[in-house]
Amino acid sequence: MGRDRFARQSLGSLYEHIKQARVLMVGAGGIGCELVKNLVLTGFGDIHVVDLDTIDLSNLNRQFLFRHEHIKMPKSIVARESVLKFNPTVHIEAYHANIKDTRFNIDWFRSFNLVFNALDNLDARRHVNRMCLAADVPLIESGTTGFNGQVQVIKKGQTECYDCNMKETPKSFPVCTIRSTPSQPIHCIVWAKSYLFTEVFGISEEDSPELDNSEDSENREEINKLRQEAKALKRIRESLGSSEFPRMVFNKVFKEDVYRLRGMEDMWKSREAPEPLDYDTISGLTTKIEPTISHNDQVVWSLEENFFVFCNSIQRLSSRLEALKSNHSGDTPVLSFDKDDEDALDFVASSANLRSQIFGIDTRSKFDIKQMAGNIIPAIATTNAMTAGLCVLQAFKVMRNSLDKARMIFLAKSTERVITSEPLRLPNPDCAVCSVTQSRLIVDTSRATLNDLVHDLLRLELGYGDEFSVNNNLGPIYDPDLEDNLAKSFNDLGIVDTSFLTVIDEDDVEPRVNLVFSVANKSIPETSKPIALPEKLDIARKPKQRSQPFPLQLGNGTNDTNGGRKRRASEASFDTEPIKKRGRLDISHPQNPDDVIVLDDTEGGTIVIDD
Amino acid sequence: MNSSDAPAASSPAEANHRATVAHDMTSNTAQEQQLPGQHITADEIALYDRQIRLWGVKAQEQIRTANILLVSIKALASEVAKNLVLAGIGSLTIVDPEHVTEDDLGAQFFVTEDDVGKNRAEAAAPRIRKLNPRVAVHTHNIPLTTQPPSFFSSYQLVIACDLPFATLCAIDAAARLAGTPFYAGGAHGMYGFVFADLGAAHDFVIERDRPNVATRVGTREGPTRTIVHVASKKDGDKVKEVVTKRETYCALLLANAAPLPEAWRRNRRKLRTVTPLLTCLRALWEFEKVTTGPAGVENGLGMGAINPSAPTPTTATTTTSTAAAADPANPTTQQPAFHLSGRHPSPLSPPDLQLFTRLATTKHSELLLPAETLRSAFLRSFLQNLDAELAPVTAFLGGQLAQEAINVLGHREQPIQNLLCFDGEESVGMVVQLSPFVGEDGAGGAVAGSIDVGMDGMGAGGTGKDVGMGFGIGPGMGAGAGPVGMGTGIPGLAMDMAGGGPAAPMAGGMDVGMQNVGADMGGVDMHNMPVSGVGGMGMDMNMGAGMGVGTGIPGMAAGDPDMQTAVQNMDPTGVEGMNAGFGAGPMGAGAGAGVDALGLAPGMENAASAVGEVASATGMEGQSVETGAEVLPNPGT
C-alpha cells in the first residue's frame, strides 16, 4: 500500500531501476513542467533539471508549476519547489544555467542513466544530442507545436540521432522583396521590424550582423539606392526627440521613398504601383481616435488608427531613447526589438500596416503581427502533457533495455487514432554528427597549440595525410590553406573543456569518416605532451558509395479530417523549396531566447520548440 | 440555494478563501476592463496568448464561460482538471464522495500525505484553484442520481472518470437527457480509455485549404457524420474552406453493445489491427455486471470506485440521499460505503482469471476479431495493470480528454467517435467507432436477441403511423424491427410514450444486476422519419433512461428532447403527454423499488405530481420527493 503501490503493480521490477535512476532533464518550460511532474510521480530517484530561463506571464497557460507570483523567477528553481510537494521522497537538483556551460561536461553527462530534452531551440537540442552521443547516454528528444507533438529516442550507434536528418532553417526573404516589392503582410512586418525599427532606434542596417546586403549584377543598382535611402533616414535620426520627428520619419518612408519606388516604372508593369501617404493629409483625420486604440490588439486598425499609433509609439520610443542617452556615457544607446515591448510592437505593427496600405496588402491586427514579428509558436497544456507522458513511456523501454519496442511517436489525430508511431530508424551513415568516430581529447588547453593537434597527433600518430580540416562549431580553424592558427594555443582559439572539434578527412582515396573530439581540459605536467588520446583509435574509412537518404516511413493511417502527418509532410516540402543564398534578410534572431524556430524534419513531423 | 455547496467547504477559512478569489477576479489591473466589442479582457488575452493563437478568441470566449462537471477525481481526472483550469474555463465543479488514501499519492498531484482521509474533491480543490484564480472551482459530494436533469443541464460538459461502467452509463444517460455532452475516461496502469457521447448532434467547424472539388452540404462522411454547412474564407492569397460537420453520438451503454463499423468487419486486415484492449474493456465491464449478484449492495447512487479485490461489500447502509441532503452540516453522514455492486477481477484469484478469460474470449468473438489477436500475455498484462494509476499514462489520457473537452466547447476540430483505447506498452492510441447507427444501406447493426417491443402499460394505443426500428434493451440486448405505435399521452401523467420504437421494459437487462439501484436505460429507437420517404435510417436517436435509487427515492425517466420534437411533428395532439416523459419501465420487480417517472422535457410543469401518480398507478411503494429540494446552485455563481 501507499505511494508506490501502483508503480510497483504496473512496472514490476522496472520500478526498482526507476528508483535508482539518475536522470537529466534539459528545459523546464512547456514540456519540462509536465515531464518533471511525471518523473517525480513515477518515482525516478534522482532528477536534475537545467534551465536558463525565467518565468513569463505567457507561460502560465500551460506551465502549471508556475503561478503569477513566480513571474521573473528562474524556471528550474520554481519547478523543483513545486514538484517536490508531489513526492517528497525523490531528490531533485535544479540548475538555473545554460546547458552549454562548461561545467556540464562529458563526464557530467556520463553520470546519468538517461537524458530528456524539453527544449525550445535548435542550438541547445543539437548540443545535448552531441553530448549524449559523446557520453553514450540515451536521450529522449521531444517537441510540440499547437496540437502536434513528437517524441524520439536517441541511442548512440543504435538509432538515428537528432542531426541524422536535415532540420528546416528559418525562413528568409530577399532584400528587394522586403524593401521594394512586398506582396504579403509578412514582408511589411519584416520591413518594419528589421529595417525601419533598427534604422530609427537600433543598430543601423550596415552594422547589423543579420543583414547580408551583398549585391549581384541584377540588383546592384537597386541595392545602392536602398543604401542611400537608409543613409537619409539616418540623418533624420539626428532629429530624434524633436516634435517634428514623427512627421519627418513618416514622410520619408511612407511618402518620399514610395515616390522614388513608383518612379521605377519597370517594377510596376506586372504589379500594382504603391500609393504614397502624406502626413499632413492623414493627421487632419485623426481627431476622433481613442488614445487607447493601441490596447485593442484583436481588431484590424483603420489607416487613421495606424497613423495615430505610429506617431504615438514613435514618441514613446523616442523619449525612452532620450532618457537612456541622458544617463549614459560612451556608446550611443540603442533599442532592440522585443515582441513583448509594447512600444516597439506598436511601432512595428502600425508601420507594417501603413506599408501594407501603400502596397495594397491586407492589414493585420496587432495580435497577429506580434505572432509573425516574434515567431510565436502556439503552445497548449494538453499537447505538452501528452507529449511528456509519451516521453516517460519511451523511457521505460530504454530502461528495460528493449529499444526494439521503443517507437518514434507523433501526436497526430485522425478519425482512427490519436497518435502514430514508427519503429526507430538506424543511424544515417552519412550523418556528420553520429556516424563518426568519437573520442575524447585530453588537452592542457593553456599549453597545447593547434599544431600539437594537427602535426603531432593527427599526422604523426593517426596517419592523416595533407588534405584534411579541423573545425569547431563556427567553421574551419585549420585546413591546408588556413595555417594562421597553428601556433595559437587552444585557449587562444577559444577551445575549452566541453568544446567539440571535428576532423574532416579530404583525402581523394579512401577518406576516413569524420573524427569528432570532445575536449577534456586537464593540466598535464610540462614533461609530457600537452595533448593525448585516452585510448587507441581505429578510424573507419568512408563507404565508397554514399548511401541514399533514408526512405520515408510514414505512419499508415491518415484517414484524417484535420490534417495528419501526410498532409503536413507535403506542406513541409513546399516550405523547403530551394532558397537563394545571397541578399536575404534573416528574420530569426537566434540571440533572443524568446524567438522560436520551427523545424520540419524530412518526413514532415514537426519538431517544435516550445518556449 | 447553496446549502449543498456548504459541505464542500470543510472550514470557514476555505469559504473565505473562495470569497477572496472572487474578489481578486473583479479587481485586477486597469486592463481588466473589458474592451469594446469583446468580453474577454486584455489581461486574459495576454495570459492565454499562446492558446488563443491556436484556437482563436471566439473559442476562448466559449471556453471562459463554460461550466464543467467533473465526477470523481483521481489521477486521470486530476490531469483533466489541471488542463481545463489552465485553459481558463468558467467553472469546474468536482463531485467525489470518496476519501484520499495512501495509494492516491502515487499519481494524484493535487493531494498530499496530509490529505489522507479527507474528501478527495475537497482536498484537491484548493490546489486546483491556485493554478488559475480566474476559474471558479466548486466541490460537491451530493449523490448525483438524485439530481434532477436540470442539474446536468447547467453544465456545458460532464466528465466522469474512473467509475464503474454502470455509474458511467447512468451519468451519461442523465447528461444526455439534459442535452449536455458527456465524456468518460478510465485508467488502468499502462492502459486507458476515453469515451465520448456528445449527443444526437454535435456540430464542429474545421478550416482547410479548399479542395479541387467543392464540398457539398449534406454529404455523409460515414454513418455518423454529415456536412451541414460550407463557407469560404480568404486567408492572405489562399482561400480556405470553413466546413461545419455534424456528428451523431450514442450512449455508452449502446456503444458497449454495438459492433465494429461495417467497413472494418469486412476487412480482415483491419480487424487484426484492432487493439485487444477493446475486448478487455468490454470484458471488464461485463465482469462488473456478472459479479453483481444478490451479494451486491445498493450504494445509493452507483458512485464510487470499484474495490479491485474485495468482493464483499460492506454493510448495506441504506442512507437515502433524502436524509443525507437534509443534513448538509454533516457531510460525513452523506457518505455511505460506496462500494458498487460490481467488482474487478483479482489477478491472484484463479476463478476470477478464469471468468475474465471466458468473458474476454466471448467479447472478442462478438466483435468478430480474430482469435489470435487476443493473447494470454496481453490478458495477463491487462489484469496486472487493473485499477493502477501511472502518471505518464494518466497525463496522456488527461491531455487527450481535456483537449477534446476544449475543442467541443469551442466547436472546433473533429472529436473522437467514440471510444479511444490507449495502450502505453505498445504506444497505440486507437479510436474505435462503436455505434448502432448504420450506413446508408440501412442494413446491419442488429445484435442477436429478442425483439423487445413493448410499452409500459400506461401508454395509450398507437396509431401505427410510424414504422421504425426498435432497439430495445432487455435481458438479451435485442434489436429488431416492429410496427410501433404513436402514442397519445394523457396530460399530466408520466407516461411511456414511445413515439417510435418504444423502450423495452427494463427489469433485468440493464439493471446491471443491482437490485434496487442502478442505471436503467429505457431503450433506444431510431425513427424512420416518414419525410425521407425511403427506408433510410433517421438520424434521430431517442433514449429513455430510468434510474431508480433506493427505496422511495425518485428516479428519473425521460426521453431525449429531440424525440419530443419528432413526435410533435407527427402528432401535435400528443404534445403535452409526451412532455411527461418516456421510457420508464418498472424495474427491480419484487424488491419494492418504485420507479418514478419524471418528465424531463423542457416546459414540463407537473413533474412532481406525475411522479406520484405513476407510483401509485403501478402500485409500488413509490414516494415522490420535491424535485427542487436538491437542486445544486448554479455552478457559475
From TrEMBL, chain A:
It comes from Lineolata rhizophorae. Residues 216-243 form a coiled coil. It is found in: Nucleus. Its main location: nucleus. Residues 577-587 have a biased composition (Basic and acidic residues). Residues 312-370 form the Ubiquitin-activating enzyme SCCH domain. Residues 540-595 are annotated as: Disordered. Pathway: Protein modification; protein sumoylation. InterPro entries: ThiF/MoeB/HesA (IPR045886), ThiF_NAD_FAD-bd (IPR000594), UAE_UbL_dom (IPR028077), Ub-E1_IAD_1 (IPR042449), Ub_act_enz_dom_a_sf (IPR023318), UBA_E1_SCCH (IPR019572), Ubiquitin-activating_enz (IPR035985), UBQ-activ_enz_E1_Cys_AS (IPR033127). GO terms for molecular function: ATP binding; metal ion binding; SUMO activating enzyme activity; transferase activity. This is Putative ubiquitin-like activating enzyme. It comes from the Eukaryota. Transmembrane segments: none annotated. Belongs to the ubiquitin-activating E1 family. One of its GO terms (biological process) is protein sumoylation. Keywords: ATP-binding, Coiled coil, Metal-binding, Nucleotide-binding, Nucleus, Transferase, Ubl conjugation pathway, Zinc. The keyword Metal-binding applies. One of its GO terms (cellular component) is cytoplasm. Residues 546-562 have a biased composition (Polar residues). Residues 441-521 form the Ubiquitin/SUMO-activating enzyme ubiquitin-like domain. Residues 15-432 form the THIF-type NAD/FAD binding fold domain.
From TrEMBL, chain B:
Residues 309-337 have a biased composition (Low complexity). One of its GO terms (molecular function) is SUMO activating enzyme activity. Residues 309-338 are annotated as: Disordered. Pathway: Protein modification; protein sumoylation. GO terms for cellular component: cytoplasm; SUMO activating enzyme complex. It is found in: Nucleus. The keyword Cytoplasm does not apply. Keywords: Nucleus, Ubl conjugation pathway. InterPro entries: ThiF/MoeB/HesA, ThiF_NAD_FAD-bd, Ubiquitin-activating_enz, UBQ/SUMO-activ_enz_E1-like. Belongs to the ubiquitin-activating E1 family. This is Ubiquitin-like 1-activating enzyme E1A. It comes from Lineolata rhizophorae. The lineage of its organism: Eukaryota, Fungi, Dikarya, Ascomycota, Pezizomycotina.
